[in-house]
Amino acid sequence: MYLLDTNICIDYVDGRSETARRRVEANFRKGLAISSITAAELLVGARESDDPAGDAKRIERFIGVVRCHDFDDAAARSYAQIAKAIGVRRKSFDRLIAAHALALGYILVTSNGAHFTDVPGLMVENWTV
Protein backbone atom coordinates (compact mmCIF):
# COMPACT_ATOMS: atom_id res chain seq x y z
CA MET A 1 0.00 0.00 0.00
CA TYR A 2 0.99 3.59 -0.61
CA LEU A 3 0.52 6.70 1.51
CA LEU A 4 0.47 9.80 -0.66
CA ASP A 5 2.25 12.91 0.59
CA THR A 6 0.48 16.23 0.14
CA ASN A 7 2.66 17.35 -2.77
CA ILE A 8 1.84 14.25 -4.85
CA CYS A 9 -1.86 14.82 -4.24
CA ILE A 10 -1.52 18.40 -5.45
CA ASP A 11 0.55 17.28 -8.46
CA TYR A 12 -2.25 14.88 -9.34
CA VAL A 13 -5.28 17.07 -8.62
CA ASP A 14 -3.82 20.17 -10.29
CA GLY A 15 -2.36 18.22 -13.22
CA ARG A 16 1.16 19.49 -12.50
CA SER A 17 2.85 16.19 -13.33
CA GLU A 18 1.82 13.81 -16.08
CA THR A 19 4.13 11.19 -14.58
CA ALA A 20 2.41 11.50 -11.18
CA ARG A 21 -1.00 11.26 -12.85
CA ARG A 22 -0.05 8.04 -14.63
CA ARG A 23 1.46 6.50 -11.48
CA VAL A 24 -1.53 7.40 -9.29
CA GLU A 25 -3.96 5.96 -11.82
CA ALA A 26 -1.82 2.84 -12.40
CA ASN A 27 -1.61 2.12 -8.67
CA PHE A 28 -5.13 3.09 -7.65
CA ARG A 29 -6.38 -0.50 -7.42
CA LYS A 30 -3.30 -1.62 -5.50
CA GLY A 31 -4.29 0.71 -2.69
CA LEU A 32 -3.71 4.42 -2.30
CA ALA A 33 -4.28 6.24 0.94
CA ILE A 34 -3.66 9.58 2.58
CA SER A 35 -3.16 10.61 6.17
CA SER A 36 -5.73 12.79 7.87
CA ILE A 37 -2.78 15.21 8.17
CA THR A 38 -2.55 15.34 4.37
CA ALA A 39 -6.31 15.80 4.08
CA ALA A 40 -6.07 18.80 6.40
CA GLU A 41 -3.20 20.32 4.40
CA LEU A 42 -5.10 19.83 1.15
CA LEU A 43 -8.28 21.40 2.49
CA VAL A 44 -6.43 24.45 3.82
CA GLY A 45 -4.49 24.91 0.60
CA ALA A 46 -7.61 25.04 -1.52
CA ARG A 47 -8.71 28.18 0.29
CA GLU A 48 -5.54 30.06 -0.70
CA SER A 49 -5.76 29.62 -4.47
CA ASP A 50 -7.01 31.79 -7.33
CA ASP A 51 -10.01 29.46 -7.69
CA PRO A 52 -10.79 28.34 -4.14
CA ALA A 53 -14.24 26.96 -4.96
CA GLY A 54 -13.01 24.92 -7.93
CA ASP A 55 -9.94 23.69 -6.08
CA ALA A 56 -12.03 22.74 -3.04
CA LYS A 57 -14.32 20.66 -5.27
CA ARG A 58 -11.36 18.84 -6.85
CA ILE A 59 -9.77 18.23 -3.44
CA GLU A 60 -13.04 16.95 -1.94
CA ARG A 61 -13.53 14.63 -4.93
CA PHE A 62 -9.98 13.31 -4.55
CA ILE A 63 -10.29 12.82 -0.78
CA GLY A 64 -13.54 10.97 -1.43
CA VAL A 65 -11.92 8.29 -3.59
CA VAL A 66 -8.77 7.51 -1.61
CA ARG A 67 -8.72 5.97 1.82
CA CYS A 68 -8.04 8.52 4.54
CA HIS A 69 -6.36 7.10 7.65
CA ASP A 70 -6.89 8.88 10.95
CA PHE A 71 -3.70 9.88 12.73
CA ASP A 72 -4.07 7.49 15.65
CA ASP A 73 -2.18 6.30 18.72
CA ALA A 74 0.18 4.11 16.67
CA ALA A 75 1.03 7.07 14.43
CA ALA A 76 1.56 9.30 17.48
CA ARG A 77 3.96 6.78 19.00
CA SER A 78 5.81 6.46 15.69
CA TYR A 79 6.13 10.24 15.56
CA ALA A 80 7.52 10.33 19.09
CA GLN A 81 10.22 7.81 18.10
CA ILE A 82 11.16 9.85 15.02
CA ALA A 83 11.25 13.12 16.98
CA LYS A 84 13.46 11.57 19.66
CA ALA A 85 15.82 10.10 17.06
CA ILE A 86 16.16 12.95 14.56
CA GLY A 87 14.32 15.96 15.95
CA VAL A 88 11.35 18.04 14.91
CA ARG A 89 11.11 20.50 12.03
CA ARG A 90 8.97 23.51 12.74
CA LYS A 91 6.27 24.54 10.26
CA SER A 92 6.29 21.15 8.57
CA PHE A 93 3.93 18.21 8.70
CA ASP A 94 6.46 15.95 6.95
CA ARG A 95 7.55 14.19 10.14
CA LEU A 96 3.92 13.48 11.10
CA ILE A 97 3.15 12.09 7.64
CA ALA A 98 6.35 10.01 7.71
CA ALA A 99 5.41 8.64 11.13
CA HIS A 100 1.97 7.75 9.85
CA ALA A 101 3.43 5.86 6.88
CA LEU A 102 5.74 3.95 9.22
CA ALA A 103 2.91 3.12 11.63
CA LEU A 104 0.81 1.79 8.75
CA GLY A 105 3.73 -0.04 7.14
CA TYR A 106 3.10 1.83 3.86
CA ILE A 107 5.45 3.25 1.26
CA LEU A 108 5.39 7.06 1.29
CA VAL A 109 4.96 8.62 -2.15
CA THR A 110 6.34 12.15 -2.44
CA SER A 111 8.03 14.49 -4.88
CA ASN A 112 10.19 15.83 -2.03
CA GLY A 113 12.21 12.78 -1.12
CA ALA A 114 14.94 14.95 0.40
CA HIS A 115 12.52 15.91 3.18
CA PHE A 116 12.40 12.30 4.33
CA THR A 117 15.94 10.93 3.85
CA ASP A 118 16.73 11.16 7.55
CA VAL A 119 13.69 9.16 8.71
CA PRO A 120 14.94 5.70 9.69
CA GLY A 121 13.12 2.78 8.10
CA LEU A 122 10.83 4.89 5.91
CA MET A 123 10.31 3.56 2.40
CA VAL A 124 9.91 6.42 -0.08
CA GLU A 125 9.06 6.59 -3.79
CA ASN A 126 9.00 9.65 -6.05
CA TRP A 127 6.25 9.33 -8.65
CA THR A 128 7.18 12.51 -10.55
CA VAL A 129 10.38 11.18 -12.14
Chain-wise SSE layout:
Layout: E1 2-4, H1 6-13, H2 18-31, E2 32-35, H3 36-47, H4 52-65, E3 67-69, H5 73-86, H6 94-104, E4 107-109, E5 124-125
Parallel strand pairs: 1-2, 1-4, 2-3, 4-5
Helix pairs in contact: 1-2, 3-4, 5-6
In short:
The chain is of the alpha/beta class and 129 residues long.
Task: Tell me what you see in this structure.
- The protein has helices spanning 6-13, 18-31, 36-47, 52-65, 73-86, 94-104; strands at residues 2-4, 32-35, 67-69, 107-109, 124-125.
- A 5-stranded parallel β-sheet has the order 3-2-1-4-5, sandwiched between helices.
- The two termini are 19 Å apart.
- The mean pLDDT is 93.
- It has a single domain, classed as 3-Layer(aba) Sandwich (Rossmann fold), CATH 3.40.50.
- By secondary structure, it is α/β, with parallel strands linked by helices.
- The radius of gyration is 14 Å and the shape is globular.
- Helix 1 crosses helix 2 (18-31).
Labels describing this entry:
5 strands; alpha/beta; Rossmann fold; 129 residues; five-stranded parallel sheet; 57% helix
The description of the largest β-sheet is: 5 strands, parallel
What's the architecture in CATH terms?
A: 3-Layer(aba) Sandwich
User: What characteristic shape results from the CA principal axes?
Assistant: globular
Radius of gyration over all CA atoms, rounded = 14 Å
Q: Can you list the strand order of the major beta sheet?
A: 3-2-1-4-5
Q: Name the CATH homologous superfamily.
A: 5'-nuclease
The amount of beta strand, in percent, is 5-15%
Mean pLDDT: 93
Number of strands: 5
> What is the C-level CATH assignment?
Alpha Beta
CATH topology: Rossmann fold
User: What is the H-and-E element order?
Assistant: EHHEHHEHHEE
> Based on helices, strands and strand pairing, what is the structural class?
alpha/beta
Distance between the termini: 19 Å
**Proportion of residues in helical segments:** 55-70%
Low-confidence stretches: none
Note the total helix count: 6
| Count of folded domains | 1
